[in-house]
Amino acid sequence: MEKIKAVFFDFDGVIVDSLSFWENLFNKVIKTYQLDATPLLKNDGINFTTHEAIEIMLQHQQRFTKHLYQDIIHWTEKFYTDNFHDHIKLNEQAIDVLKTLKSNDIQIILVSNSSRQQIDYAFQEFNLSNYFDDTISADDVKKGKPNPEGYLKALEKTNRLKNEVIIIEDSTTGIQTAKNAGINCLIYKNESYVDKKNYIDNLNDIYKLIEIKT
Length: 214
Prior knowledge:
Blueprint: E1 6-9, E2 16-17, H1 19-32, H2 38-41, H3 50-60, H4 66-87, E3 89-90, H5 94-103, E4 107-111, H6 116-126, E5 134-136, H7 149-158, E6 165-169, H8 172-181, E7 185-188, E8 199-200
Parallel strand pairs: 1-4, 1-6, 4-5, 6-7, 7-8
Antiparallel strand pairs: 2-3
Helix pairs in contact: 1-4, 3-4, 4-6
């Protein structure tokens, strides 16, 4: 195995604990705008960015207009900032791991289905900018996860080979995205994969696979 020279992190569920927040957001936006989530449920409700999910629900109800779509997007972004500190928590291990990787000259890129506005807000509130060499949001790709575009863009930015990179993901969608990109993945705290060799329940376990000084 080649020495790992770059690590690509998912955001929600890895850097931050935010599952309950996203469930709450979608429940609220569906109720507020009387949306039909049926087309999302057919795909487990997780295979879309927020923007994709809203567009799909509106198209399904034949209600899509640019004005309504943008109104709902604005609502979700405001909900994000208004409820951020009450419902989104930083993973306690994340900062130490990011610091250690950075001190060992490991390139670090965030690849997320969250919007650019959400990522920028979270990075500001949690002072994360200094730890990441770059970030790729849902706004930076044509298709969000499980489409591999985000991770392939990250690979281009690092100028590394696929076997020099590792992805850290927690969701089934994210894991499939890594597979679609052809890049090795560590599965973080997803109980469905606890018996897999690449499963970790502690971010510090990254060190076992990367030749770095801790």
